[in-house]
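> example.struct
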């Protein structure tokens, strides 16, 4: 019965979203209705789902939502907002534009940005060995590779598909599933990784990368014409920035810090994605002060970070949903 209700709720929510209803409101309403149905039908006791019961079942449904929001906003929500704010600040100071301008030069000679899509998948799969959080890795790649690839001519859908695929193949000694499989098979996890996983995983990842190059190019051509090369050649003056060439490393700082503070370099150092972004922001502020020598101007620029975090929190995507 519970599975049937869940299926009906999914169909109901999906239908409303396809009709351009606001997704957040639809999902919130669906969740509340499911919680209330579960309570009144006796499927579950809402008082057991909350940290502290209100004493009245229907109120506990909203208390459960409050508990969930407090956890999500303090964890995943904070990560998403910080990444969004950092990415906006990188564009505001010209660091993202410098990164795009420098990295676009070899691709302009190749005249095929889709090759970078395949390389991005390989890079993401490699990084997944050291960044075990799929969400964290995805956010880092969205902040670094997404603006780069889209400005070089790849469609947003193609880039998003590649980034979403970076953790499709879960492997490595740090993977929970790998540890469980090795324990079940009574094999050392490192031996399991080297002898059993790698011979299968490497060809699979290479094949997926090749498929992305072919498939994403096909769909981009079918939907908008073969204008990738034209887009790549028309990096206009708006993309040009007067930021120093060394600023191209600033957008990559969170990724570098996550790699350095991992088993790849310093296994004794462990930092979270949130910490990596905050450290990167602090380093960027110091660099900006050395560049402008105006503390008031540099501090005022930090407001862009908080403005973007607020925008990410509100999910201001109404224009996209109306398309």
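> example.seq
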């Amino acid at each position: 019965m519970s599975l049937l209700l869940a299926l009906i709720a999914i169909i109901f929510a999906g239908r409303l979203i396809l009709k351009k209803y606001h997704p957040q409101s639809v999902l919130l309403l669906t969740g509340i209705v499911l919680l209330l149905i579960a309570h009144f039908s006796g499927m579950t006791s809402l008082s057991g789902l909350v940290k502290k019961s209100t004493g009245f079942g229907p109120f506990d449904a909203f208390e459960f939502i409050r508990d969930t929001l407090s956890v999500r906003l303090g964890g995943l929500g904070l990560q998403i907002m910080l990444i969004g704010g950092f990415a906006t600040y990188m564009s505001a100071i010209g660091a993202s534009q410098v990164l795009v301008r420098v990295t676009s030069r070899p691709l302009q000679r190749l005249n095929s940005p889709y090759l970078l899509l395949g390389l991005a998948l390989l890079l993401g799969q490699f990084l997944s060995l050291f960044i075990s959080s799929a969400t964290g890795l995805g956010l880092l790649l969205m902040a670094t590779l997404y603006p780069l690839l889209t400005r070089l001519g790849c469609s947003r859908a193609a880039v998003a598909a590649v980034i979403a695929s970076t953790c499709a193949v879960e492997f490595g000694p740090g993977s929970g599933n790998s540890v469980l499989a090795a324990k079940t098979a009574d094999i050392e996890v490192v031996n399991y990784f080297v002898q059993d996983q790698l011979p299968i995983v490497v060809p699979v990842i290479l094949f997926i990368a090749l498929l992305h190059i072919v498939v994403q190019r096909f769909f981009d051509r079918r939907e908008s014409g073969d204008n990738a090369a034209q887009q790549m050649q028309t990096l206009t003056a708006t993309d040009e920035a007067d930021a120093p060439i060394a600023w191209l490393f600033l957008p990559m700082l969170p990724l570098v810090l996550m790699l350095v503070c991992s088993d790849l370099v310093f296994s004794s150092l462990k930092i979270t994605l949130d910490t990596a972004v905050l450290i990167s922001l602090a380093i960027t502020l110091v660099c900006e002060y050395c560049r402008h020598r105006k503390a008031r101007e540099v501090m005022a620029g930090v407001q862009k970070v908080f403005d973007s975090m607020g925008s990410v929190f509100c999910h201001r995507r109404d224009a996209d949903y109306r398309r």
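> remarks
The radius of gyration is 23 Å.
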